[in-house]
Amino acid sequence: MKHLTHILILLPLILGAGCGDSDTASSSEAWVWDLPDTVPEPRVPEDNPMTAPKVELGRFLFYDKKLSGNQTQSCGTCHLQELAFTDGLAQAEGSTGQIHPRSSMSIANAGYAASLTWANEAMVMLERQALVPIFGEDPVELGMANMEDELLRRMRDDERYPEMFAAAFPDQADPINLDSITKAIAAFQRQVTSFKSPVDRWQQRDLTALNESEQRGMALFFGGTNAAGVEDAFECFHCHGGFLFSQSSDDAGQVFNQKFFMNNGLYNLDEDGSYPPGNEGMYEMTGDPLDKGRFKPPSLRNIAVTAPYMHDGSIATLEEVLDHYARGGRLIESGPNAGDGRNNPNKSALLNGFEMTEQEKQDLIAFLRALTDDELLNNPAYSDPFAE
User: How many Å apart are CA 147 and CA 130, to the nearest integer?
Assistant: First the structure.
C-alpha cells in the first residue's frame, strides 16, 4: 500500500484545485456518445463533464512522456492501442525498469468499470486512479513522486499546453494544475469505448456478422447445452456477462456499483489458499484470509489481442485459459508456486470444471475472437498524437 501514501497527501491539493465554475460545460457543446442502442452511457462525474477540448487535452497527456520522471514513458507505453490498450507483457514494466507484479489492464471501456484495478474495491474513479501511475511509489510506474512542481513546469513550458488547458478549462484563471491534468486524462479514458465487434453487430440483428462456429461458441458461452448434455456447463456468463462481458460493471443508469471479485483457482500454495507473496488479490487491502486470490474478472472484449492472461500474465493463450477452467483450477506440480488450484478453499463455487470436446473448445475461442473491435484498434481519436 506504499503507493497510496503519496497519493493521499496529494488529494487535498488536487480536490481543492479548480473549484467553483471551472469544470462546467456551459461554454462547450454537449458531448455526444458514439454508442449502440444496446449500451448505456457511462457514469460521468458532475465536476468533470465531457467536452471535446478536454478529451483532446487528455489524449495528449495520456501519450506524453513528460508525465514520467525520467521522461521515458507515458500512460500509453503500457496501454497500446493496437493491443486494445494493454502492452503484451505478462507483467508491466515501469519507467525505472521495475517489473510490476501484475499485467496492464485495458483502458477500453474503463468508464464502465465498477472498480479500476485488479484487486482494489476502493478505486472507482478514473480521476483518482490517474494519480496512481503518475505518483505511485510501490511499484514505480511513471515515477513523478515529489515532482509535482516539475510536472506543472513541463506543462507550462510546452508550446501546446497553455492554450489547450485554457480551452479545456475556460473558467479557470490558472488551468494548469494537478486537478486539471487528472480530469483531462480521465475524460480521454472515459470516451475510449469499444462496442463495434462482430458480436455487437450480431446483437444489433446483423445476421451475417457471426459464422456458424462463432454462433455455436456464443450459445455455449451464454449457457447452452454441451456435447455431454449438460446445460450451462461452462458457466462463462456468470462472471463475464452483461454488455461489458464482465459482471464488474457500472453505468449512468445503475443505482448500485456492481463491484465483483473472485478466486479462480489459479494458485493454491497452502491450506489457506494463498497466492504468491505480494500478489494475493484483495487480501492485500483487507487482510481477510477469505480474500486471498480474489481478483476482478476483466472484460472479455478484445480478449484475443490482450494476451497473456490472468492478473499476472501466467497463462499464455486462450486455449490454455479454457483448459484451466475445464480442469476447475490450475495444477502446478513443482517449484515455489506448487499446488492444486482446483482445491483452493477460496475458489468460487461457480468453478467446478467441465467436459469439453475439441470442437466446443474451438467454437468458444471463435466466439471470443469475435469480440475483437477492429475500429478500437485503429480509431485515430484514440491514437498517439505525437506519432502523427
Answer: 15
